[in-house]
């Protein structure tokens, strides 16, 4: 399996407490989060005594059938998950939510993000006799919770959360409560909402809007929200917290109609385009965006520079991502199927094309080639984020330097490689400056700078180091 784009969203989660249509609303919310994961989906519901679940591979309608959804109707609380495999194999056993059946009571678990010490903890737990059912990092929290001795679930949860490291938005469903919690750096988004008097949480506010819920606020780093029949209880587990929201959520992953801190991603991307225009001193006849995620940045670029914004590229929405083989020629064909230039728009023009990022360079090279063959006189490229140079260990599937062209080539070398007249990336400072305008309290920029805000324990394990030195 190979994606021509090279960057994939991590996962999406949704949870709701005490609503008569909990399963149906969860299904609808997951539809709105489908862009965050297309490999599998699932729902776990509570009837107040036990938990029941349905899950499957593929897009939501393939993963959960009408019959399965009907079987969950009437349960009043639910959690749901859409998955893109960032750790663990792409197979049904890894599709979430996980449902643990235990003498202490059933427990449903949904996780967005990636733990950076999961292998270390798993190894220790296995030494003590634990048997894992999946190869996913997410299962670790379930084992830590069942192993804990305190009669208080909250104490056990706090102790477990203080053992795990990494990026996580976790939802835990039990017969008498739903718990939502975010890692102490708030790397992944999690939003609190309310619909018909029932509390709900979602990875993005677009899922809240989809079910007619009011978007109340963003869940804070280190926060624990517990929903039960007494209402909502706010607490936290971490002594020290920092705000390190993933920069790429703003640039590329989140849906443009979603809001972080009540500011739309649409407006943030427009502002990234404006900032890029300030930093990119090139004259041209038109500016175009690579659909879909770069259209807003192109709009912003145009409004600052005064260069007219046109639709010069068309996206074929029906090109699947899974059938592409890892072969350069086939990848190029796949990109050609995905983006088509509009000759009348670009012919004879000096074109600035805006994209949100360059991963391997395959897509960019094709786009430049296609614009030239459609008659563009000059092609300049502006990237609305800094060069992607480092792997992400917090839930995005770029896991090696070798996958990133900017990790081993200079901007000038990349320019030559993709055969563009000029290439300008947004500066790291420019990007952070934009986020500040939208009340962001701090972002992770590790894939641009290599400054990882959370320790990467598993990748420092001796066997990993050994593998790396042997070039495995
Ligand atoms: S390393 Fe990059 S992609 Fe990963 S969380 Fe940080 S900003 Fe996001």
Automatic annotation (TrEMBL):
Keyword hit for ATP-binding: no
Annotated InterPro entries: GATase_2_dom, Ntn_hydrolases_N, PRTase-like, PRTase_dom, PurF, PurF_N
Active site: 11
One MF annotation (Gene Ontology) recorded for this entry: 4 iron, 4 sulfur cluster binding
Catalytic activity field: 5-phospho-beta-D-ribosylamine + L-glutamate + diphosphate = 5-phospho-alpha-D-ribose 1-diphosphate + L-glutamine + H2O
One biological process term in Gene Ontology: purine nucleobase biosynthetic process
Its biological purpose: Catalyzes the formation of phosphoribosylamine from phosphoribosylpyrophosphate (PRPP) and glutamine.
UniProt keyword terms in alphabetical order: 4Fe-4S, Glutamine amidotransferase, Glycosyltransferase, Iron, Iron-sulfur, Magnesium, Metal-binding, Purine biosynthesis, Transferase
Binding-site residues, [4Fe-4S] cluster: 246, 392, 444, 447
Protein name as annotated: Amidophosphoribosyltransferase
Superkingdom of this protein's organism: Bacteria
Glutamine amidotransferase type-2 domain sequence ranges: 11-230
UniProt enzyme class: transferase
Organism taxonomic ancestry: Bacteria, Bacillati, Bacillota, Bacilli, Bacillales
Annotated cofactor note: Binds 1 Mg(2+) ion per subunit. Binds 1 [4Fe-4S] cluster per subunit.
């Amino acid at each position: 399996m190979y994606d021509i784009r090279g960057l994939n969203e991590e996962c999406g989660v949704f949870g709701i407490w005490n609503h008569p249509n909990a399963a149906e609303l969860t299904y609808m919310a997951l539809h709105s989060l489908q862009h965050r994961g297309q490999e599998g989906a699932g729902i776990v519901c509570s009837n107040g005594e036990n938990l029941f679940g349905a899950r499957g591979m593929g897009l939501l309608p393939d993963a959960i059938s009408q019959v399965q959804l009907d079987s969950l109707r009437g349960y009043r609380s639910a959690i749901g998950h859409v998955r893109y495999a960032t750790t663990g194999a792409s197979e049904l056993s890894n599709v979430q939510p996980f449902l643990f059946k235990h003498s202490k009571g059933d427990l449903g678990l949904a996780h967005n993000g990636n733990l950076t010490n999961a292998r270390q903890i798993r190894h220790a737990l296995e030494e003590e006799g634990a048997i894992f059912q999946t190869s996913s990092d997410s299962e670790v929290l379930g084992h830590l919770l069942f192993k804990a001795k305190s009669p208080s679930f909250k104490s056990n949860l706090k102790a477990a959360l203080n053992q795990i490291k990494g990026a996580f938005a976790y939802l835990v469903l039990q017969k008498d409560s739903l718990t939502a919690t975010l890692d102490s750096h708030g790397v992944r988004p999690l939003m609190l909402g309310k619909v018909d008097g029932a509390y709900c949480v979602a990875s993005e506010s677009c899922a809240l809007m989809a079910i007619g819920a009011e978007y109340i606020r963003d869940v804070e780093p280190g926060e624990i929200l517990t929903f039960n029949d007494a209402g909502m209880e706010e607490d936290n587990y971490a002594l020290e917290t920092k705000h390190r929201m993933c920069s790429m959520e703003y640039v590329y992953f989140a849906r443009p109609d979603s809001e972080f801190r009540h500011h739309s991603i649409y407006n943030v991307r427009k502002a990234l385009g404006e900032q890029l225009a300030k930093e990119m001193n090139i004259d041209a006849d038109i500016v175009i965006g690579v659909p879909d995620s770069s259209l807003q940045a192109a709009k912003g670029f145009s409004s600052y520079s005064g260069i007219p914004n046109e639709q010069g590229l068309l996206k074929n929405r029906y090109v699947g991502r899974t059938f592409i083989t890892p072969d350069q020629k086939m990848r190029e064909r796949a990109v050609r199927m995905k983006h088509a230039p509009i000759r009348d728009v670009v012919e004879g023009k000096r074109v600035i094309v805006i994209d949100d990022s360059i991963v391997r360079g395959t897509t960019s090279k094709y786009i430049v080639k296609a614009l030239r063959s459609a008659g563009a006189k000059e092609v300049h490229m502006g990237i609305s984020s800094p060069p992607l140079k480092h792997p992400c260990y917090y839930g995005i599937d770029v896991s090696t330097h070798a996958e990133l062209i900017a990790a081993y080539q200079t901007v000038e070398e990349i320019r030559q490689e993709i055969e563009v007249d000029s290439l300008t990336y947004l500066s790291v400072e420019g990007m952070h400056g934009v986020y500040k305008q939208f009340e962001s309290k701090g972002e992770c920029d590790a894939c641009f700078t290599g400054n990882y805000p959370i320790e990467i324990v598993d990748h420092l394990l001796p066997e990993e180091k050994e593998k790396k030195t042997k070039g495995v």
